[in-house]
Amino acid sequence: MPSSRYTGPILGWYADNARDLPWRGPGASPWGVLVSEIMLQQTPVSRVLPVWREWLDRWPTPAALAREPSGEAVRAWGRLGYPRRALRLHASAVAIVDAHDGRVPDAYDALLALPGVGSYTAAAVASFAYGGRHAVLDTNVRRVLARMISGVRYPPKAQTAPEARLAESLLPEDPPVAARWSVAIMELGALVCTAGTPRCGECPVASGCAWRLAGQPPHDGPPRRGQSYAGTDRQCRGRLLAVLRHADGPVGKAALDVVWDDAVQRERALDGLIADGLVDPVGDGLYALPR
Asked: 41-70: buried (b, 16+ CB within 10 Å) or exposed (e) per residue?
């Protein structure tokens, strides 16, 4: 399927409307791009920006992070959520130092081999940091393609092979243009073709959007429910980790017990943090971030 019908309008829209994000700037390093992609998973830009800046100020290279204990990555992760990402990013930094002389690799397969780096992140870094030609399929891109090409309001819950083939077919042939296309269509999904209230009047390809031309049919799949947070194990884990992040050293069990009333849930959450490598029992009833 030729992409020229969509490429020019979307690239032109992006040139006029792209957000000024530091990991997209000309001075952004491949390491900065990798850090941003890991942080942005399931986390909005507004929350990532200050943490990303602090992270790059403290650890401007993979080697700088690799020299520190993994617990410091967890501490600096703050309240971004899903803190196992901090451990994976630390492990990636170590692998980049050990296997790539401290340089973030530019090849998709080498990126994919890094700890915690999946197909999306590998394609994103290869494209956005190095100008490679790869289909970059995040939630925003999948939603734009579902509406623009397939004529449905939402894509399937899990990515499918036909989606990947469609994204590949729309890539411009020139790698730098393809990389710009990938970030442009992602931005369109983030700012205009949003999940809840798409602003079709601002869309540069509204006239050729299959979903709009079909009369914007409603979603006919399983109900799409937002994730709850209050009262969940995730919230409990976050509270326990917050105690350890703000402590100067190991803390006793009593300091953890006071942050969550439900003892059964609290113990389950603590056991999970230990199993995930986010908390170390250090003896005598004390707990600390990993060393």
From this structure: bebeeeebeebbeebbeebebbbebbeeeb
**pLDDT digits (tens), the chain, 291 positions:** 445 789 999 999 999 999 999 999 989 999 999 999 999 998 999 999 999 999 999 999 999 999 999 999 999 999 899 999 999 999 999 999 999 999 999 999 999 999 989 999 999 999 999 999 999 999 999 999 999 999 999 999 899 999 999 999 999 999 999 999 999 999 999 999 999 999 999 999 999 999 999 999 998 877 766 667 889 999 999 999 999 999 999 999 999 999 999 999 999 999 999 999 999 999 889 999 998
Q: Is 267 one of the annotated active-site residues of the chain?
A: no
Secondary structure (H, E, C), 78-106 = CCCCCCHHHHHHHHHHHHHHHHHCCCCCC
For residue 283, the cross-strand partners are: 286
d(CA 181, CA 14): 9
SS (H, E, C) 127-192: HHCCCCCCCCCCHHHHHHHHHHHHCCCCCCCCCCHHHHHHHHHHCCCCHHHHHHHHHHHHHHHHHC
CA atoms of 70 and 45, how far apart (whole Å): 24
Residue partners of 10: CB distance under 8 A and separation at least 6: 181, 184, 185, 188, 204, 205
Which is catalytic among the residues 37, 72, 163, 187? Answer: 37
Cα–Cα distance for residue pair 220/152, rounded to 1 Å: 9
Contact 31, 61 (CB under 8 A): yes
- Apex 46 CA angle, 39 and 24, nearest 5: 65
Distance CA 273, CA 237 (A): 7
Provide φ and ψ at 252, rounded to 5°.
-80, 165
**85: amino acid identity, one letter:** R
User: pTM value?
Assistant: 0.91
